[in-house]
Amino acid sequence: MGAFPGASASVSGNDMSVNKVVAMPTQRSDGASAIFVDPVSLGLEAEIERVAKSSVHILIRGETGVGKELVARRIHALGARQGRPFVAVNCAALSESLFESELFGHERGAFTGAFVATAGWFEAADGGTLFLDEIGELAPAMQAKLLRVIQEREVTRVGARVARPINVRLITATNVDLEQAIADGRFREDLYYRIRVATLRIPPLRDRPADILPLARHFSRHYAAQPGGIPFTAEAEAALLRHDWPGNIRELENVVQAALVGLRTPHVTPADLTLTVRRATAAPEVVPDSLGLLSGLVDDLLAFDTPDLFERVQELLVLRALAACHGNQVRAAANLGVTRNVLRTLMQRHGLLKPTNREP
Q: Which intervals hold domain Sigma-54 factor interaction (predicted)?
């Protein structure tokens, strides 16, 4: 793009592929898709499909590199605005001095260098979806201007006297603790409630290990010079599964891409993988309250009218316990605090028990 200095954005219409088996369009324009198969990702897909059918503003939360733009594109592709523009803007790249001209546009002669009238990102996304990544990095003055546009549903170009109506679905994303930022006076509470009509939390890659190898193979197919990609040895796959992926999907993509550069063997081996080991002392400054996070997730789920919510959560809980214990029912039951008989009853209830071949 590059229409505005300092802005990082991309625009796409109906040029993305949507594959079932939980496929999310990537940030590239070639239509490639990243496959997610972990039970946690399947649960997230169900939430994505639910919110995509609505028109409410959505806040996506998760660590850096976890795939927030992928989810935003997936929502757009499944919603009523598919085929209309999808515009992604990195808020961290928006300078305060050019914020209004970049987001809202400007008229000719509005400032030095404004030789032609130019539409901003809101107008570029009119009728479609505007994705504002790293919303937590916006300065307070910019937050106030953004809030007004969201409330009034119109933008006024720099140097203009007449406002232009806009019809945009807003999706925002952040890895910042916005509640703490509000308490610290760094983020406006009124803006927070405007963008947080619905919330999606994307778990880190280490919490959905079944996605690691499918994603690695996907990136191999994308970056390898040969069709079908370059396979990984069993030892390389084991190394990928052992890694905790602090940089999430973005780190995995970079590791695979680097491994393929100058590769002279028919397989990717552990020696080709550049895996950075985190220091033992590098503990997070703040240990999250697990029950507090769970309460927040429950609040978000209850905000939707989902008659079968209890059944869906119960099934997901059983699936995750079994996945964490590699299918061992005794261990899974112990982790859930129930007996194996209770677990098997739940598995049967949700169709998770394989039929036996015993004679009646």
A: 34-261
Match 């925002």 to its residue by tokens: 172
* Of 289, 195, 215, the residue nearest 257 (C-alpha): 215
Distance CA 166, CA 125 (A): 9
Q: Which amino acid is at 74?
A: R
Residue 310 CA to residue 315 CA, distance in Å, equals 9
Tell me the per-residue pLDDT of 181-223, one tens digit each, with 9 for 90 and over: 999 999 999 999 999 999 999 999 999 999 999 999 999 998 9
pLDDT digits (tens, 9 = 90+) for 157-191: 887 788 889 999 999 999 999 999 999 999 999 99
Q: Which of the two residues, 310 and 275, has the higher pLDDT score?
A: 275
The token duo for 121 is 């990102």
The domain made up of 9-201 is a member of CATH 3.40.50.150: no
**Closest of 196, 279, 269, 284 to residue 239, by C-alpha:** 269
Q: Cα 321–322–326 angle (5° rounding)?
A: 125
Q: Please indicate, yes or no, whether the overall pTM of this predicted structure exceeds 0.70.
A: no
Burial (0-12, 13-18, 19+ Cβ within 10 Å), 354: exposed
Q: Do domains 208-272 and 307-349 have the same CATH topology?
A: no
Residue 4, token pair as written in the block: 């505005």
Give the Cα separation of 19 and 293 in Å (integer). 31
pLDDT at 293: 52
Position 101, amino acid: S
Max CA distance (Å), the chain: 86
Class of domain 307-349: mainly alpha
H-type alpha helices, 67-108:
68-78, 99-104
* C-alpha dihedral sign at 289, 295, 301, 306: positive
Q: Does the structural domain 208-272 have CATH classification 3.40.720.10?
A: no
Q: How far is CA 191 from CA 59, 136, 164, in A?
A: 11, 11, 21
29 CB contacts (<8 Å, ≥6 apart)? Answer: 10, 12, 15
Q: Pairing state of beta strands 23-25 and 58-61? A: unpaired
**Is the CB of residue 275 less than 8 Å from the CB of residue 239?**
yes
CA distance 248 to 244: 8
